[in-house]
Amino acid sequence: MPGGDAGVGPDAGAVDAGAVDAGRDAGATDSGLPDAGPRDAGNGCGWPLDSGPSSGGCPAGSPGPTGGPPTTLPLDAGAVVHANVTYGVRGGRVLQGDLWLPAPGATPKGILVMVHGGGWGDCNQRRDVVSPFAGFFMATQDVAVFNIEYRLAQEGGVYPANLGDVKCAVQFITAQAATYGLDPTRVLIIGESAGAHLALMTAMTQDRADLDPGCSAQPPRVKAAFAYSPPTNLPALVVARGAALAYTEGPCTTPVTTCGASCDRCIDASPLAHACTSPAKVMLVQAPDPFDALIPASQSVSLAAALADAGAQVRLLIADAGAIRAQTWVGLSCADAGISHGFQSACLLNPTYVELAAAIQDALGP
Prior knowledge:
It is built from nine helices and twelve strands. The protein is of the alpha/beta class. The strands form two sheets. It has a ten-stranded mixed beta sheet with strand order 1-10-9-8-7-5-6-4-3-2, with helices on both faces. The protein has a two-stranded antiparallel ribbon with strand order 11-12. The longest helix is centred in the C-terminal third of the chain and has 19 residues, at 346-364.
């Protein structure tokens, strides 16, 4: 991995993975997401879900969206990346992604849509941050990877606009699949952190007509979602950060349990609220407590239990604590740094990659 130690990643080969399933009784206490901007005590969810009108963009001097004119770049062994593919224009902003294609002759089994993290509003987190992993998954999983950007909260990307952006990307690549020699019936989605949340919401609300961005005549369909360190119960995360006052004074007074969509946006934006109607396969990947300083294991454990109760196909993978402790990453000990978060972290990807790879192949089918 860039700047990391040996193991799974763009610069690594096979790994001796140690990962175990976690039961529903895994004990954990919810903790919050990192502060990424101001909160409005007069609303239910706090920033960024109910942050009101867009402020116009990221602060002056911070990175803007990666992108530019469309460009085709050659890669090793005949693979290519079609950079800056415009998949839509929403809210006055051009939305782009990079399409990574294996070499001619190596017909991709399917399409993996990749969604970056960053707390829905980190101006330093764009698709370029996860680009090495797009190439890595393309090369190791025999898939085309569409690595996309979506509007951040400051750019008008508050829920459900950011979800609409991601769904728009799914609709675009599905409609254009034949152009690139791809199978439009084998579309998967993967994300980390906030991107994992959007990946899950894309997969679990496929049949919600009110959440269809209308970028294609066909609904945004994915066969499976793979979520690394996902927020799944947003009210619990906000309350755990000491924002309970916003809930008592705002509209978000009903906790998310297992299902039952609500008109309340912070409940409706929680994957846990849609467990009863999820049509896609779901894989949840999480570090055990306390190795992830941002998302507690209970967020994935509770969603996995709700999906299982609903009869959905779900796989919960809690990384083995011993395998995490045995590693270092970017010179830090995975045992005490609290950085086992997302697939960019070797601390979490190394012990879980073998199972992830098998689940991707299973979702693609023969």
